[in-house]
Amino acid sequence: MIYLAGIFITIFLFIVLISKKRKSQADKILAAWLFFTGLHLVLFYLFVTKDYTQFPYLLGVEKGLPLVHGPFLFLYTLALTSAKKVTKVSLLHFIPVVILYGLMMPFFLMPPERKIDVYNHQGQGYEWLAVILIPAIMLSGIVYVILSFYLLRKHKKNIESQFSDTEKINLNWLRYLIYGTSVIWIIIIVGLDDDYIYTAVVVYVFFLGYFGIKQVGVFSNPVLQEDNSIVAKQQLNTETVNEIINPVTSSEAISLETDHDSNEAIESNEKVKYKKSSLTDEDAEKIHDDLERIMSDEQLFKDPELTLGELAQKLSIHPNTLSQVINSFEHKNFYDYINNLRIEEFKRITQQPDSKKYTLLSLAFKCGFNSKTAFNRNFKKAVGLSPTEYLSQSEIELG
After folding, report:
1. Any transmembrane segments, and where (predicted)?
2. Do 96 and 40 belong to one domain?
3. How far apart, in Å, are the Cα atoms of 51 and each of 35, 115, 119, 201, 202?
4. Model confidence pLDDT, tens digit, residues 106-155
5. Nearest-angstrom CA–CA distance, 157 and 132
């Protein structure tokens, strides 16, 4: 039966995760989420097979479980994308579950025979529970999915403010997780039968296992290289990137303002950061001039792995300051700024006669791009045309 398969896979993923040697806080949250998901599937299986009569002490427990999945999704996303640790205060997200179980306490205190009788009569005497529970479940799903998407979008912007190439930064795992949860909540809101909902949950668990095992560092221990950075197959997962762009706490970041050797501490809230900045217009203009000069002379944008921290180190300034200057003078984030320079370089060298013997992709690589997808996407975004359309319109032929 498909529900049994889902239960076994959930238990398997839970065991794999808790046996992981270097468990992060995100791993612990995901493990707890898998535990409650497995419990939810077990209780539904007992209901479908009518075996719940053999476990009357479990009756009613399943009612509050739909309210835990939204908070778990949000907290897991928060743990992966935020520099701050998820604290005990986050348990407040589970207050609706506690309130629900508090309201159901008279039912839990009933004799087993009476509980079974209530279930056999479709919840007779507890019709009020559905009136409260259904809107609460829908609201919980909508709110926490939206919040999780917001965190993911914010994290993506943060990444683009630090890296000139995001192709190796893998956000797919978290994206699939949120999309999958969204689909399940849509099925719930539409009002399909429980069979459809739990079948969707089982399919979701299958994909969760597949993509989770495929994604480096989720259900396996990440590979530690000699430089102690967590990388595998040249792909960085969401949690690893968060460690890179948020390596210190906010209190530590203050001390780094005067320490150029430790310039990788980045504040995620640009507006607050700039508002507190003591950078004068004169200093900002000088930094921008230095930036333009070093880009023209050394063409650092041709380095596909260039990061904000590395560029700031070249200019002997803090990354926050450089980010502020780029945003203020170029009206772009670091990612768009560097890739626009690469595109301008591509447009320049295609005008040279010697470039005709090269292919379009080889010239793109020469300018600092390291994938055809990134080149095409950024070129279309900046120019409004695809690279081939641009070359055709400019009557340029390449090898």
Report:
1. 6-22, 29-47, 90-108, 128-152, 173-190, 196-213
2. yes
3. 21, 14, 12, 21, 20
4. 999 999 999 888 888 888 888 888 889 989 999 999 999 999 999 999 88
5. 38
Reported as type and span, the H/E element at residue 237 is strand 236-237
Summarised one tens digit per residue, pLDDT across range 5-57 is: 889 999 998 998 888 888 888 889 999 999 999 999 999 998 888 888 888 89
The whole domain housing 256 covers: 247-331
Boundary of a domain, candidates 214, 238, 270: 214
**Are 342 and 376 spatial neighbours (Cβ–Cβ below 8 Å)?**
no
Do both 14 and 92 map to the same domain? Answer: yes
Rounded to a whole number of angstroms, the CA Rg of the chain reads 26
Confidence of residue 161 (pLDDT cuts 50, 70, 90): confident
For residues 210 and 110, give the distance between their C-alpha atoms in angstroms, rounded to a whole number: 42
CA-based torsion, 123, 129, 134, 140: positive or negative = negative
Domain count, the chain: 3
In the prediction, which pLDDT does 3 show? 81
**Residue closest to 162 by CA, chosen among 332, 377, 319:** 319
Q: What letter represents residue 318's amino acid?
A: H
> Which DSSP symbol is given to 22?
S
- Same domain? For 47 and 143 the reply is yes
Please name the residue ranges forming H helices in 169-223: 172-190, 194-214
Flag whether the pTM goes above 0.90. no
Question: Residue 141 contacts by C-beta under 8 Å, 6 or more apart in sequence?
Answer: 66, 69, 70, 181, 184, 185, 188, 189
